[in-house]
């Protein structure tokens, strides 16, 4: 046994306890949320917490869609009316989603499911069900406590100050990610706008958009970009010259139903779809029946 | 309880094989740190990736109580300096362990006292349960000598040695962590290992404090004479 190997193990390794980790998370969360607060200091009026959780995403999505229409090169009165229609849908959707709603985010590769997350929210509580790559699994955020399933049993993850951050991390991204800057990057440059009215009363606004460069891989220089929910795209989605296909579906009730982004073909085909449901009608979120 | 992170899932690029899941890998630390400049929450993933390793490293050097605070201080410092991170380096471990090493320097005396205590009490140290018995005994026997070597060697040599042996950094990574030349790292490492080997060749108990707890000395002597 050589000296380095002996040194490497003569003092036993110690893992942090749950309490250690909790204290660390709390302190770091304070720093991060403090930073967020500073970063987000704006002259706009303060939004309510509940609105931030539920309605903000749709409002911002509407803003993004307005941006789509504004930037569309198609121009003309058709675009103006389309913009007005989408703005109206966005406002209505925001109002409907203010207190409760459901959003499902799915990714597929070559026609096969790759990752999925469904978020239900009602007032300040939320539920996340995830599957596929990078999924957080099953999460519940009820009355300020975040729960997850561990070995088949529910367990409280964190309480107090940390839970606010955990909510930001796991639940708000499912909502805000759709509406945030990243999504605006996705939809902000749409071209070749087309409007299609379905027999079921839906209206689909669709077009193409050049993938935009957000950042690059420091190792390879490869162009990549960060999409909602922390995805990092490679290949075609990161190629500024590639065109992403985007479609926004507005229902007969004038609420946004679906936003879809797709790129690639065949074995390189990817899709990213966000579907809203039960806006204003999602049932209250209850805590887990038992916890370990 | 830990929850897997959601930052950094990657997708796109080459198509997977017929029986493979689509390629998915983690974003590099550099990517996450860069993202965290605009979106501070992205830094959480850095914490999740490296907290355990930093805690373990600091606990071995200064004990659990100190590690509790210092491990967090590492990440708070890193978070506050994230906009200065050198994006050429995808792996943030050297950067984080460098910050940790700077923090440990403020506790140098405490660390030396700790190693001296180890030298006295090494006979009772537990080692990992899944090691072979022979290796376990090697570690037990070597403990006092190594602790003595670590306590007595210059701090700059100890830093390099422990970044290699306990943090698992390569010499080049240590160079980056400490912002010193690779050649300096190698020479310090070489001297530190020479000192450790020198202590290992000596009877580790011959010059221990005779006022130390007798059972430890008896236990060690028993082992040495029976082998």
Describe the fold and architecture.
The complex is a heterodimer of chains A (292) and B (227). By secondary structure, chain A is an alpha+beta fold. Helix content of chain A is 34%, strand content 33%. In chain A, the strands form two sheets. In chain A, strands 6-5-4-3-2-1-14-13-12-8-7 form an eleven-stranded antiparallel beta sheet. A three-stranded antiparallel beta sheet of chain A has the order 9-10-11, covered by helices on one side. In chain A, strand 1 and strand 2 form a beta hairpin. Chain A is extended, with a radius of gyration of 22 Å. Residues 36-77, 159-163, 176-187 and 213-219 of chain A have low confidence and may be disordered. Chain B is mostly helical and 227 residues long. Chain B is 64% helix and 1% strand. Chain B has helices at residues 29-38, 43-62, 64-80, 93-105, 108-121, 133-152, 155-165, 171-178, 182-201, 214-226; one strand at residues 10-12. Chain B is globular, with a radius of gyration of 21 Å. At the A-B interface, helix 1, helix 2, strand 2, helix 6 and strand 11 of A face strand 1, helix 1, helix 2, helix 3 and helix 6 of B.
């Amino acid at each position: 046994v050589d000296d380095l190997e002996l040194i490497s193990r003569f003092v036993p390794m110690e893992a942090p306890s749950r309490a250690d980790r909790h204290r660390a998370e709390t302190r770091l969360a304070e720093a991060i949320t403090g930073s967020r607060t500073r970063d987000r200091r704006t002259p706009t009026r303060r939004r309510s917490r509940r609105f931030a959780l539920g309605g903000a995403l749709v409002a911002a999505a509407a803003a993004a869609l307005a941006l789509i229409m504004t930037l569309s090169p198609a121009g003309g009165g058709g675009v103006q009316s389309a913009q007005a229609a989408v703005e109206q849908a966005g406002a209505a959707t925001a109002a409907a989603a203010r207190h409760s709603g459901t959003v499902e985010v799915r990714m597929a590769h070559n026609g096969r499911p790759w990752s999925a997350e469904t978020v239900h929210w009602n007032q300040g509580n939320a539920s996340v069900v995830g599957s596929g790559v990078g999924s957080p699994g099953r999460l519940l955020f009820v009355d300020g406590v975040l729960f997850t399933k561990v070995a088949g049993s529910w367990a409280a993850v964190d309480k107090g100050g940390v839970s606010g951050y955990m909510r930001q991390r796991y639940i708000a991204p499912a909502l805000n990610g759709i509406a945030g800057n990243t999504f605006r990057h996705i939809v902000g440059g749409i071209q070749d706008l087309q409007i299609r009215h379905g027999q079921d009363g839906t209206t689909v606004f669709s077009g193409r958009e050049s993938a935009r460069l957000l950042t690059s891989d420091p190792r390879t220089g490869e162009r990549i970009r960060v999409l909602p929910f922390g995805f990092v795209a490679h290949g075609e989605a990161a190629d500024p010259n590639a065109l992403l296909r985007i479609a926004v579906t507005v229902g007969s009730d004038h609420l946004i139903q679906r936003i879809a982004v797709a790129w690639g073909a065949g074995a390189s085909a990817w899709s990213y779809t966000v579907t809203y449901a039960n806006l204003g009608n999602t049932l209250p979120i209850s805590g887990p029946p038992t916890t370990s | 309880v830990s929850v897997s992170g959601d930052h950094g899932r990657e997708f796109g690029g080459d198509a997977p094989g017929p029986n493979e899941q689509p390629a998915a890998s983690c974003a590099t630390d550099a990517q996450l740190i860069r993202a965290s400049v605009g979106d501070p929450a992205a830094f959480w993933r850095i914490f999740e990736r490296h907290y355990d390793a930093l805690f373990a490293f600091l606990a071995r050097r200064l004990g659990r109580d100190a590690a509790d605070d210092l491990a967090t201080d590492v990440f708070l410092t890193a978070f506050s300096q994230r906009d200065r991170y050198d994006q050429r380096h995808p792996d943030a471990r050297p950067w984080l362990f460098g910050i940790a090493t700077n923090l440990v320097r403020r506790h140098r005396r405490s660390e030396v006292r700790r190693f001296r205590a180890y030298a006295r009490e090494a006979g009772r140290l537990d080692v990992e349960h899944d090691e072979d018995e022979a290796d376990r005994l090697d570690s037990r026997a070597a403990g006092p000598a190594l602790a003595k070597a670590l306590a007595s060697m210059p701090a700059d040599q100890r830093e390099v040695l422990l970044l290699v042996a306990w943090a698992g950094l390569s010499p080049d990574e240590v160079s980056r962590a400490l912002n010193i030349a690779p050649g300096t790292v190698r020479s310090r490492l070489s001297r530190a290992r020479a000192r450790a080997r020198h202590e290992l060749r000596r009877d580790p108990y011959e010059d221990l404090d005779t006022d130390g707890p007798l059972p430890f000395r008896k236990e060690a002597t028993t082992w040495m004479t029976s082998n």
